[in-house]
Fold this sequence. Notes:
This protein is α/β, with parallel strands linked by helices. The protein is built from two helices and three strands, in the order βαβαβ.
Amino acid sequence: MGGFFMDKKLTSLIISAHADDHILCAGTIIKLHEEKSLNPYEIVLTDFCQGQDFRSDVFTSNQKIKKLRSKELSAASEFLGIKKTYFLNQPDFGLQP
């Protein structure tokens, strides 16, 4: 006798403040995607333009950081099987309750 989720695809929504925050649940996403055909979606709240490229000793502009983080997020999301990522583009480190 099958359980409730036996023949159903699960859909999840990951909400993260920054582009790299979904790493906290990456293992769960991968496991559920493999075992339950998970359909994960993601919302990233900030524009992730603050920060630094730690691979370089040279200061990197906010626009270059934003472009770099966007590229990294796209690669990570594809690897995790995230169906679509939505961006709210709020100022990085500027979220208010």
